[in-house]
UniProtKB/TrEMBL annotation:
SUPFAM superfamilies: Acyl-CoA N-acyltransferases (Nat)
Name by which UniProt lists this protein: N-acetyltransferase
InterPro entries xref list: Acyl_CoA_acyltransferase, Gcn5-rel_NAT, GNAT_dom, GNAT_YJDJ
Species whose genome carries this gene: Pseudonocardia alaniniphila
Pfam families xref list: Acetyltransf_CG (PF14542)
Length: 102
């Protein structure tokens, strides 16, 4: 098995994670006004339990940071991941945190 690869499939408005050239999962987003809102994250059952969801979210949030985008984690998985990784909390605007449970 090769190292998972994450790419921004901008035409589909989602980050994708691929393992051995197979789509293993994705995180759907919406862009607007200097923000990226993560709507839904999904990992294929065939790839469950391999930590791919975390790798996908970390790569997507790193990309948001690089692009200077604020993050709105509407997706429960992304929100929960940020809760466990406080070094990414700064991506979520302070005024939004209480509203979304962070």
């Amino acid at each position: 098995m090769t190292e998972p690869q994450v790419l921004d499939a901008a035409g589909s408005s989602r980050f994708e994670i691929h393992v051995d050239d197979k789509l293993a999962g994705f995180a759907v987003y919406r862009l607007g006004h200097g923000r990226i809102s993560f709507i839904h994250t999904e990992i294929d059952d065939a790839f469950a339990g391999q930590g791919l969801g975390g790798k996908l979210v970390r790569a997507a949030l790193d990309a948001a940071r690089t692009r200077g985008l604020a993050v709105i984690p509407q997706c429960p998985f992304v929100r929960g991941w940020i809760q466990k990784h406080a070094d990414y909390l700064d991506l979520v605007p302070e005024a939004e945190r209480a509203h979304i449970g962070l």
